[in-house]
Amino acid sequence: MQTSDALVGLECYECGDRVDPADADQRCPECGGALDPAYDYEQIDLDRETLDARPFDSQWRYRELLPFDPDTAASLDEGGTPLVEGPSLAGELGVGELYLKDDGRNPTGSTADRGLSVAVTAAREHGAGDVALASTGDGGQSAAAYAARAGLDAHAFLPSRSPFTNKAMVNVHDGDMTVVGGRIGDALDAAGEEIEAEGWHDLGWFETPYRREGVKTALFEIVEQLAWDVPDAVVVPTGSGVVAVGVHKAATELERLGLIEDAPAIYVAQAAGCAPIVDAWEDGRDEPEPVEYPDTICGGIEVPDPPAGSLVLDAVAETDGGAVAVEDPAILDSAIAVAANEGIEVGASAAAAVAGAWELSREGVFDETDSVVVLNTGAGSKSDDVLRSHLMGQGI
Ligand SMILES: [Zn+2]
């Protein structure tokens, strides 16, 4: 198995054991905890000038901080997405600058592409023939695309409520799709049984150690796009927690390498109908409790029992950030407002972060000099029906 020079092992979040990447491709062999790629930061020689000189063309330009070399990557040139200024939104929020990191412009239209590029690369390095996962939608579409790229067979388990685009594109990429009645928990159960029975390589959020490694690059890019001027706040729509954990790890690594002095405050935004992380944050708990009856139109982030809730809460606490829950109508209103006023298309689930930024502003969290980045994790056109229906409900 070929890994990058700086990768020194996979460290278990639970028991702290470090294992050789060749010996573990999923969870910790000792205790079943999630594994985290560890690097020898002393060995990494990376400065701003070196990065500035590279083309801004894909996430693999951060090769020193990724577990595999670009020439072995299953890549569709993911990453390198625009950071688009939103002056009208900045004015409404009363902040100095507001940017949308538009990850809807990834190969399959979501942030999932960053993580699945790395995770599918790992699967191929481990000699897997079949990869599988349960997903709320975007991850399934993305996994099917990257498996096709890598010459692997993909099996995606999506709950029946997943967007039509996601289901259709799994098929178009020649993936094997199982639509599971119910919600993400049902899809996770169905996927788990089949994965175990068939011995498939699991690409689930924290089953593979590698998805957040790809997500990290979104924050690397944001900081570079702002000419190394770290934003005061990054607002992240949050379901499973992979994105928030990835952004936090990226900030920690940039600090450790001396490329930035302070991490941005990380704010996680959830839909009020399924906000286990926000509830835990507000109650001062370090572990979320599963939501018994999740109910939000934002299916992409409807994850009632987030697999890395405690890591997300750490990210928020360590960066002096926060957590905010927003009702569905406000989320859909914000997606429509950004499309109408700024021309930027934001997915219905990702719009939780836009609405979350609005709410944080109302709570007085930001001041007029702050620079705020909202991560758009999914293309608006994938939720065209949900957004259009919301307009219909208003008689438009
Ligand atoms: Zn362990």
TrEMBL record:
Q: Does the keyword Repressor apply?
A: no
Q: Where is the Tryptophan synthase beta chain-like PALP domain?
A: 75-378
Q: Which InterPro entries match?
A: Ser/Thr_Dehydratase, TrpB-like_PALP, TrpB-like_PALP_sf
Keywords on record: Lyase, Pyridoxal phosphate
Whether Lyase counts among this entry's keywords is yes
Q: What Gene3D superfamilies is this protein classified in?
A: 3.40.50.1100
What is its cofactor? pyridoxal 5'-phosphate
Tell me, what is one Gene Ontology molecular-function annotation carried by this entry?
L-serine ammonia-lyase activity
Q: Name one GO biological process term.
A: isoleucine biosynthetic process
Put simply, this protein is called Threonine synthase
Q: Which organism is it from?
A: Natronoarchaeum philippinense
